[in-house]
Design brief:
Length: 382
C-alpha cells in the first residue's frame, strides 16, 4: 500500500489540499481529504507539487529510438517505456500509413502486450492509409489509398485491438468506412485531408467525431475566385460534435493558436498529444525515417516542405500549454488525462483520481517539471 500526500490533488471536483491518495495494488483505494498516516502504507511526499492523473497518449508513433511500425515486441516495449518516464501512463501506439501485413503484425504484438497485467497499452491507433495524397506530409505515399473494405473489414472483425482509425472524408467510401468502424468499437477520425466543410459534416454523421492533430494537414478557409470556401478546420471549431487533439509542442501549433483552440473548443473537447516519432525520449540525432531530419526541436521532411512529427513528450505538452499558451494548469492536466480518456471511452478506469480507478498518477512541481510517475501502482520515476 502507498499513500501520496503533501501536495494539491486534482480531482473531478477541482483541487483538493491537505488530502492524500491511497493506492493498493494497481488501483486507487481512496482519495482522502486528510493526510494522516495510514498504517502499513509507504508514504510518498509530493513536496508541495501537483498530484494529477497520469497522461493518456492518443497519438504517438514511437520513442526511445524505436517505431511502432516495426511491429515487434521489443520495439513496442522500448517505445512505451521511454514515454512512461515522461508522464505517459496509458498509450495508444500509432502506425503511420502501413500495408495490411504491417497492421496485422502490430495488432498481434499489441494484443500480446495488452493482455499483460497492468499494461499501459490500450489499443492501436491507425493513422492512415486512407488519406488524400496531396496532404500526405511524411506519410509513406506507396501505402496511401481510399478505404478498401477487403482490408479494413477483416482487421476490424478478426481483431479487437484497433481502437481508432483515421481517414480523409472526401475520399470515396469513407462514410461506409466510418460506419463500419463505429459498429466495431473503433473511433473513426478525420486526418490528412483537403476536404471541405460539407465533407466534414457528412463524416460527422457517419461517426467521425474526432479531428486528428487539429489544424495540421487539414484544409482551412480559402478563396475560389470571388467566393470563400470553408474547410475542415472551421468545421472543427463550429461543430460541437467534434473533439480535437492538438500537438502541444509549441511548433506544430504555435502558442497563440493553441490558446485560441482552447478558448473555442474548451477543455472537454480538446486533448493534447505528442505525435512523437521514434527519436522522442532518446538521444538520437537522426530520425527513424531517412526522409526526415531533426531541426529546431521538431521533425521535418528533409526538403523542409512540411513538419513530419514531433519529438515531444507528455511533460513537454503540459509545460507548453501552461507556460506558453497561458492555459490553467488544472485544464492542461485534464487535457492530457480526462479528455483523452473520455474520447476513447476508457474514463470508467482511467483519466481521473477516483476510488477504484487505475493507479496511474503523476506529480509535477510549480514549474511543470515532472517529479513522479506511477503506473498501475508501480513507481516508474521518483
Amino acid at each position: 500500500m502507498k499513500q501520496i500526500f503533501g501536495g494539491r490533488i486534482l480531482t473531478p471536483e477541482g483541487w483538493l489540499t491537505g488530502g492524500s491518495v491511497i493506492v493498493e495494488g494497481g488501483k486507487i483505494l481512496e482519495v482522502s481529504n486528510h493526510d494522516l498516516p495510514v498504517e502499513g502504507a509507504e508514504r510518498i511526499d509530493a513536496q508541495g507539487g501537483d498530484i494529477v492523473p497520469g497522461g493518456i497518449e492518443l497519438h504517438v508513433h514511437g520513442g526511445g529510438g524505436r517505431d511502432f511500425m516495426e511491429g515487434e515486441e521489443e520495439a513496442f516495449r522500448v517505445a512505451v517505456d521511454a514515454h512512461l518516464k515522461h508522464g505517459t501512463t496509458a498509450i495508444f501506439p500509432t502506425l503511420s500509413s502501413s500495408s495490411p501485413a504491417m497492421i496485422w503484425a502490430a495488432a498481434k504484438t499489441c494484443r500480446k502486450l495488452m493482455d499483460e497485467p497492468g499494461s499501459p497499452i490500450l489499443g492501436l491507433h491507425l493513422e492512415g492509409p486512407y488519406f488524400n495524397k496531396a496532404m500526405a506530409g511524411a506519410q509513406m505515399p506507396e501505402y496511401i489509398t481510399p478505404p478498401v473494405p477487403a482490408d479494413y473489414e477483416p482487421l476490424l472483425t478478426q481483431t479487437d485491438v484497433i481502437k481508432r482509425w483515421d481517414a480523409a472524408p472526401e475520399l470515396p467510401g469513407t462514410e461506409e468506412f466510418g460506419r463500419f468502424c463505429t459498429a466495431h468499437g473503433c473511433l473513426p477520425a478525420i486526418a490528412h485531408t483537403k476536404g471541405e466543410y460539407e465533407d466534414a459534416i457528412r463524416a460527422l454523421r457517419a461517426g467521425f467525431t474526432h479531428l486528428t492533430h487539429f489544424t495540421n494537414a487539414m484544409s482551412t478557409m480559402h478563396k475560389e475566385r470571388e467566393y470563400k470556401k470553408v474547410g475542415i478546420v472551421e468545421a472543427g471549431y463550429e461543430q460541437e460534435g467534434f473533439t480535437v487533439e492538438v500537438i502541444a509542442d509549441g511548433i506544430h501549433v504555435p502558442a497563440p493558436l493553441l490558446s485560441m483552440i482552447y478558448k473555442i473548443k474548451g477543455v472537454e473537447r480538446m486533448a493534447l498529444i505528442t505525435d512523437a516519432l521514434a527519436v522522442a525520449a532518446s538521444d538520437a540525432t537522426e530520425a527513424f525515417d531517412p526522409r526526415v531530419i531533426i531541426e529546431d526541436g521538431v521533425c521535418k521532411l528533409a526538403d523542409r516542405s512540411a513538419l513530419a512529427g514531433s519529438i515531444a513528450t507528455m511533460d513537454r505538452l503540459v509545460r507548453t500549454a501552461v507556460q506558453q499558451a497561458g492555459i490553467p494548469a488544472s485544464d492542461a492536466f485534464r487535457m492530457t488525462s480526462e479528455t483523452p480518456a473520455r474520447i476513447m471511452g476508457v474514463y470508467d478506469r482511467k483519466g481521473s483520481l477516483q476510488k477504484g480507478k487505475d493507479a496511474d498518477i503523476t506529480i509535477y512541481d510549480d514549474k511543470q517539471e515532472l517529479r513522479l510517475v506511477m503506473q498501475a501502482g508501480n513507481v516508474v520515476v521518483g
